[in-house]
Design goal:
The complex is a heterodimer of chains A (about 180) and B (about 180). Chain A has about 180 residues and is mainly beta. Chain A is built from two helices and twelve strands. The longest helix of chain A has 18 residues. By secondary structure, chain B is mainly beta. The longest helix of chain B has 13 residues. The chains are: A mainly beta (about 180), B mainly beta (about 180). Chains A and B meet through helix 1 and helix 2 of A and strand 5, strand 6, strand 7, strand 8 and strand 9 of B.
Chain lengths: ~180, ~180
């Protein structure tokens, strides 16, 4: 009886092993489960909803990706929609579940475009707060919010800024965004 | 929370008897050919539940260097496992089998990236292992020679390894044997 239990455990181990073809790093690097997944980015900017959805997000071709997170100096979350570009950098060498924030103390940071003007973390109380709630199978999901200042006369690094903190980002979420390395 | 887990693990490992073990191991599976032979160190405690069987608790550290990079890149995993070690002849000596299950307290795979940056992938995950070995004595010193297949499951993938280890009991035998 005892030997049967051991044999069963050994068989289960062998079965699980054969089912999981990818090593952990391959699964994390390649997003093995992400090819057929729809990635989404949603937020409201001064009450205006923005939605970006990409099917087969894991198969976006290099150079024409519209919603993804890429390892560079930190991890750069990027979304491109008809409303403009949305960018946020997680300054970490290992993107994990947790909270990430950027404040204007760290210097001006472009985040998105709204009403034809680039929006920066610039004003004294400006910020972007991100919460990564899931990082699994090479995909990240989470929530975010923030407060930004428009550059009314763009020309970085000599932007002329408008009313500080006049642009609010609320109810932001990102789901199943593939991470590329 | 993690400190509490480690404290409980340390307490368990100090109970009844403990073994220090060194092992040589090899990662197996797809795309593992870039890894050199790994090595590991373990502390293992056994709580006798019968003459021929123990419940075991093991805390280990497995290190797998990436070929060509010395110790700069590779994978390290620290599994905490519980197991049931059963000697086939029921005496507490000789050949045994030992299924184990547990949790990977720490996992880090560090890889080179083409622009010179490091890619550090951190994970935890479940651990399953199936092992077999031989308990023997040299003089009065008890040893355990064992072979184990182990898998750490996380992030939709698994790191699989085969380990050959030898351990030496370092304290606290409660059974008639020192194992």
């Amino acid at each position: 009886m005892t030997m049967k239990v051991y044999l069963l455990l050994a068989a289960c181990t062998a079965l699980l092993s054969s089912c999981l073809k990818h090593s952990i790093e391959d699964a994390m690097l390649n997003g093995s489960g992400s090819q057929s997944t729809t990635a989404t980015l949603r937020y409201e900017i001064n009450g205006n909803p923005v939605t970006l959805s990409v099917k087969n997000a894991g198969n976006q071709a290099v150079g024409s990706r519209t919603l993804y997170c890429e390892k560079a100096v930190g991890y750069v979350l990027s979304g491109v929609s008809s409303a403009g570009e949305f960018v946020f950098t997680f300054y970490t060498d290992s993107l994990m579940v947790g909270n990430y924030s950027y404040t204007s103390n760290l210097g001006p940071l472009f985040v998105t475009t709204f009403e034809g003007k680039p929006q920066y973390v610039y004003g004294p109380s400006d910020h972007m707060n991100f919460s990564v709630t899931s990082h699994k199978d090479g995909r990240i999901s989470g929530k975010f919010s923030g407060q930004l200042t428009p550059a009314i006369v763009p020309g970085y690094p000599n932007n002329v800024y408008g009313t500080p903190g006049s642009v609010l980002i609320r109810n932001g979420s990102f789901d199943n965004v593939p991470v590329f390395y | 929370m993690r400190k509490r887990t480690l404290a409980v693990a340390a307490l368990l490992l100090c109970m009844v008897q403990a073994q220090a073990q060194l092992g040589v191991m090899k990662r197996v599976g797809n795309n593992t050919q870039d890894y050199a032979l790994g090595f590991g160190a373990f502390i293992k405690s056994a709580i006798p539940v019968s003459e021929g069987a123990d419940v075991t608790v093991e805390l280990g550290a497995n290190l797998f260097p990436l070929k060509g990079y010395g110790m700069k890149y590779g994978t390290i995993m620290c599994p905490l496992k519980a197991g049931y070690r059963y000697t086939l002849n029921g005496t507490g000596q000789g050949f045994y089998v030992e299924p184990q299950a547990g949790f990977n307290l720490f996992g880090l795979t560090s890889l080179p990236e083409e622009y010179g940056n490091n890619i550090n992938l951190r994970y935890h995950g479940a651990v399953l292992a199936a092992g077999a070995g031989f308990l023997f004595t040299i003089g009065r010193a008890p040893f355990d020679l064992n072979l184990r297949y182990e898998m750490v499951i996380a992030q939709g993938g698994s790191n699989n390894l085969i380990s050959l280890g030898i351990s030496r009991t370092i304290s606290f035998g409660k059974k008639d044997t020192d194992y």
